[in-house]
Amino acid sequence: MGKGACKAVLNKSFGFKIADCTDNVADNFTMGLAWDVTGGKAIDLDASCVYLDANLQPVDTVWFQQLRSRDGAMQHGGDEREGDEKGDDEKIMFDLERITPAATYLCFCINSFTGQELNDVKDAKCRLYNSITHSECASFDLSADKRLDCSALIMCVLYRVNSDWYMHAVGEPAMGRTVQDNIDEMQAFLRRTPLAQLQASKPPPVAKMAKIQVPAQKAQKVGFRTDTGGVQEVTLPPQAKPGDVMEVPIVEMYIA
């Protein structure tokens, strides 16, 4: 079974190498945000991305007031103000190969422009998926954390080490109606947790495989916990039969 069938289910502070959940396809990805209208009220959540360089200085920002990055590698899908769209309410699409070399970190943030706290928003989730295959690489459930009594969330960071890109689930609560209010908090997090430097200092991981058994009640997807404490989800091939034992690559997840 190939890497493209694997997905990392991230909790706060977990991260993984993006290539571990993709096969040999172009590095075109989408960060999708979905939420539902709560209590009949229109809730305006905004997804944004800030480029930071190796010294944590801003390089560019993609948000509802600038829908395209200056390097042309990232495009915001537009501002959805009510959370009543089907599927993703807001999307940010990007090509990792075209991201300016000046950027080391891509910091994704969610803001409640209308001021509601994020733990009052119904079914808010975000996911990273390949824009070509539509296969999910990772997901992060915001509604699962009822401690998010905040109007902003530094959701995750994509960062590069040499030619490799990684995703880290941050989950840091913050306050602010727009992403401009949160750049200093992104910088503060990365000073405390210098992800690129930490990853560069680690030895290369050893590729591992896991054996899973197709359950009696065949499901489309099977989840299991890895030896590092992460949760991985695998999409079963159509020909899989109950009782079959399948070998799948393990997504090497870390905690920082």
What tags apply to this protein structure?
7-stranded antiparallel sheet; 6% helix; mainly beta; 2 domains; 2 helices; single chain; Lipoxygenase-1; 8-stranded mixed sheet; 41% strand; 256 residues; 17 strands; globular
What does this protein look like?
The chain is mainly beta and 256 residues long. The protein has two domains: 3-200, Lipoxygenase-1; 209-255, no CATH class. The protein is 6% helix and 41% strand. The model is unreliable at 81-85 (pLDDT under 50).
Quickly describe the structure:
By secondary structure, the chain is mainly beta. The chain has two helices and 17 strands.
Strands across the major sheet, in which order? Answer: 6-7-3-9-10-1-15-14
Count of helical segments? 2
Mean pLDDT: 85
State the name of the first-level CATH class of the largest domain. Mainly Beta
N to C succession of SSEs: EEEEEEEEEEEEHHEEEEE
What's the count of strands?
Answer: 17
Layout of secondary structure:
Blueprint: E1 6-9, E2 14-17, E3 28-36, E4 45-52, E5 58-62, E6 74-76, E7 90-95, E8 105-112, E9 122-130, E10 136-141, E11 152-161, E12 164-174, H1 183-192, H2 195-200, E13 209-213, E14 221-225, E15 231-235, E16 245-249, E17 253-255
Parallel strand pairs: 1-10
Antiparallel strand pairs: 1-15, 2-12, 2-17, 3-7, 3-9, 4-5, 4-8, 6-7, 8-11, 9-10, 11-12, 13-16, 14-15
